[in-house]
Amino acid sequence: MPEPTAPRPISRRRLLGTAGATGAAGLAAGAVGGTLLGTAHAGSTTTPLTSIGTTVHPFHGTHQPGITSPLQTHGHLLAYDLVPGTDRRGAAALLRRWSQLAAALMAGEAADVDGTHISLDAGPSSLTVTFGFGAALFDTLGLTDALPTALAPLPEFSADALDPDRSGGELWIQIGADDALVAVSALRLLHRAAAGSAVQRWQMTGFNRTPGATARPMSQRNLMGQIDGTNNPQPEDEDYDRRIFVPAQGDPPWMAGGSYAVVRRIRMLLDPWEELAQEEQERVIGRRKSDGAPLGGDSETTPVDLAALDGAGRPVIPVNAHVRVSSPETNDGAAMLRRPFSYHDGLLPDGAPDAGLLFVCWQADPLRGFVPVQRKLDRGDALSPFLRHEASALFAVPGGAARGGYVGQALLEG
């Protein structure tokens, strides 16, 4: 994890000068809005309501933030393509602007850099900003010699129904925060800073449960009502870092301390799912819905016993249950760190919910993490009939930036 560091003041003019002249207009409009809206609380107490807004994650460090950081309530995933004619120097300038903005915003310096005033009243609120590179970027910039083997295209899966307009991308940004306005503020500023260098290819917006919404800390629930993420690798695992991060002597060298992110937009067929009896839902997943315990177990953290049999000699956890099919024990130890957001984008023309999971998983090598598990799921997972994979992308996420540097510097200046 990156080491916490003290925030360093940064010039608003230097950060936003390249993003256009709209900042000044935003500042003027924000001043008026602040006067009109601020009067309602003129006599309110200064005692903080919660500590959510004060949580800070450092931007600089060995690894980028937003990989092993706790899941936030609000998330935005964005892909960009470089504007034709943008060369390696232009790409480096963009990544430097983005990195400086991210560092300032994550340190809680929104008042110094945010001409929109969207998040002026809030603290950093666990904001993280993460940057990644798609395989197409290496062709565009003439860097094919530096293309990682692990960034090879993902194989086709039989359940895929992928929309190319919402897949791929040369550059990727993941934004997470525990306040919606803080997250949107970061999105707007990063988008403005891309002007003239990159154009947005796609954007996806998701959410998770708000911290403190449950009486005790719990894993997230997804839109199927299931507890999600229980079997993630844990920091205390001996091979935790090895599963997630490229080693210091990794290949290629510029990816040292980095990771690979697989992004999938997975629509859940919620109407037919909700027609199933709860008992059948639990057999599809292999866990109780009430507390996330594996079938036959006592609690969410009870180890999954794939060998357990019932009184009739049948597996307690069905042979095609999602928990069994995706388990490292049935995939030669393959595992990944899942860090998703749910989404709900309204209704489709047939009235079905356009809702599901913005699946994001992290691993040192997707060919040993995501790919073998997804192949196994593709062949015989009881959950698959209730899912539609509609978008997909794979990104190389370099290690964290040093102070004074930027994400991807070793690639773009190497």
UniProtKB/TrEMBL annotation:
Superkingdom assignment: Bacteria
Residue ranges annotated for the Dyp-type peroxidase C-terminal domain, each copy included: 220-401
Record's keyword terms, sorted: Heme, Iron, Lyase, Metal-binding, Oxidoreductase, Peroxidase, Signal
GO MF term set: ferrochelatase activity; heme binding; metal ion binding; peroxidase activity
Enzyme Commission numbers on file: 1.11.1.-
Annotated InterPro entries: Dimeric_a/b-barrel, Dyp_perox_C, Dyp_perox_N, Dyp_peroxidase, EfeB/EfeN, TAT_signal
Cofactor(s) for this UniProt protein: heme b
Domain Dyp-type peroxidase N-terminal: 64-208
Chief location of this protein within or outside the cell: other
Cofactor: how bound: Binds 1 heme b (iron(II)-protoporphyrin IX) group non-covalently per subunit.
Enzyme class: oxidoreductase
Reactions catalysed, as given in the entry: heme b + 2 H(+) = protoporphyrin IX + Fe(2+)
One Pfam match: Dyp_perox_N
A biological-process GO annotation: iron import into cell
Family to which this protein belongs: Belongs to the DyP-type peroxidase family.
Protein name: Deferrochelatase
